[in-house]
Amino acid sequence: MPLVGHLRELRRRLVIGVLAIVVGTIVGWIIYPQAFDFLKQPYVDGIKPLLERKGFQADLVLNGGVGSAFSFRLKLALSIGLVISSPVWIWQIWGFILPALHRNEKRWAFLLTATGAPLFAGGVAVGYLVLPKGIQVLISFAPESVDVLLSLEDYLNFVIRTVLVFGVAAEIPLVVVMLNRLGLVSARQLARARPWTIIGIFIFAAVATPSTDPLTMLFLAAPMTVLYLISEVIAKLTDRKRAKAAPDELADDQVSSLDED
Question: Which positions, given as ranges, span the membrane (predicted)?
């Protein structure tokens, strides 16, 4: 296909993706009340024990001018639209890239996509379940006699950032397996780096989690560690299969002999 043909194909797929996002945003605008109640639930669950124990009123407030309510609803509707339409615009991206890949590369692309989506969704679900505990810990630092009035927009950004951190962290096995398939790391190297990798995972979890309590950090670090160990096992199986297919090849971290014999 000539360059102009590629540009036309790109334009067509961009138009389809944008239209899908617009339709998803309209749907998000319609289901806004239900979506808002769903996002607000971790906040309600997180502050309920504090309301009973400390006796202060904690509310979500909408700061800004007259149009702040409209802009907030539009932002939430757009976020919902991006999620709802993600199968369409992701497929449009893949549809533009796949013709340039070989058959083996296409198979791995489909496999990684099919594995990455459930992992990301699982990480988002864990992040959503952790939110009440994180909010409870953060609000507990407020003085006894002070009412907590949180910005609704800040709360939405907090929720999105938290679930995205958990969702991206769940993709660790894909990254490790992909590096192993490309020959950049071997199972032996992963095993040697395991202690430092686990320490790095816990440091990342301590920095990335929204609250300062160790329980929330463990909710992120423990699944990441398990997923890393699973990816290490997959890398070991892949290396064994590769060694059987090419027994004369040396491993990447194996010292070759100086003699030609």
Answer: 12-32, 76-97, 109-131, 158-179, 191-209, 215-235
